[in-house]
Amino acid sequence: MLSFIIRRLLLGIPTVLAITGLLFFCVTTLLGSPATMMLGENATPQAIADLNARHGFDRPAHVQYVDWLARALHGDLGRSFATQQPVAAMVFPAFPVTLELAFWSMLVAGTLAIVLNSVPTGRRAIVAAITGLNILGVTVPNFMLGISLIFLFAVSFGWLPSTGWAPWSEGAIAHMKHLILPVATLSAYYFGAFSMVFRAEQRDVYRKLYIQVARSKGLSEWKVAFKHVMPNAVLPVVTFIGLAMGQLTGGAVVTETVFSMPGVGRLFVASIATHDFPVMLAISMMVVVAVVLMNILADFVYTLINPQIRLE
Hints:
This protein is mostly helical. Helices cover 77% and strands 0% of the residues.
């Protein structure tokens, strides 16, 4: 197991380097001169040239990338062009907010999708309800669902806060209240996606011979569903969760914007609007690393769910 994890980490390094290198080239070359963005369009050519020389923007792109990567590996992500603050001081406090939002959203969506689709009794009513929720989650845009939930539970009933963020230092209840609506909004789409993936695999598992043998032994439908079918049908969902978790770690942009959460997604949107290249690059690098790590974690969880699978 340890050798597998080390091998996957080593294989992930070229992926991270290739994608971050491409992003660096696109951001620093295709989007225009960083000096022009910092000084404004009315800046003189001499002022732009001086700033390029001072920060090394006039060097070849690959030289700039190697220098940026070397500093990033030591925790120095540069300074924001917009605020002149250290990028690390801006990104690292926002990262736990997005990570927690992603974790709870995946946990709620994955658990509900697997459990509800596995219940063997009352299938007609359950399938109808799940199908309706699937359609709602997949087709309704996040921003529209989020605004609707705010109007219903925050404005009309006054049960939950509409926007903002409460750290754990303000109390667990206040913290979780601010999380309920964003998590419900973000998990709605993934509930529909996970349900469709799980049900497709579930139908295939139910046709297997060992399921017929289990039923012939007199096992109840509940034991067949949760002991034999679910562990084998859940594996594609684990893969999907790993990919989705990695992406969401980079920022649930729409949800964080609607609910004014101080996460990475909202910060990324602000950096795009201001052409803040160092912040964009730092967040993009974190997204790539998160996707690689979550894929490795998903493969590891495989063996915990189904011991018949061995990692070679």
